[in-house]
Specification:
This protein has 76 residues and is mainly α. It contains two helices and no strands.
């Protein structure tokens, strides 16, 4: 059995990068929700922060669903 180490390394780097990216986007979403609460406490609406948080969480959900699509063979 021959292992293609370069391909294995490429998969490891891409999966690490995707994981870090999803975590960062999720953290930005949580930060936006916190900013929305602070904005509301000071008398504002916080609409921009809520939309930003929703976009971040939607992006995370799409990344998770795409990963499931790639893993489960019945989907393609």
């Amino acid at each position: 059995m021959h292992v293609k180490w370069s391909s294995l390394g490429e998969v490891a780097v891409v999966s690490f990068g995707a994981t870090v990216g999803v975590v960062i986007v999720f953290a930005i979403g949580v930060w936006a929700l916190s900013a929305r609460d602070q904005h509301r406490a000071s008398g504002g609406a916080g609409t921009v922060e809520a939309v930003g948080a929703g976009a971040c969480f939607l992006l995370c959900a799409c990344a998770v669903l795409y990963g499931l699509y790639l893993i489960i063979p019945q989907f393609h």
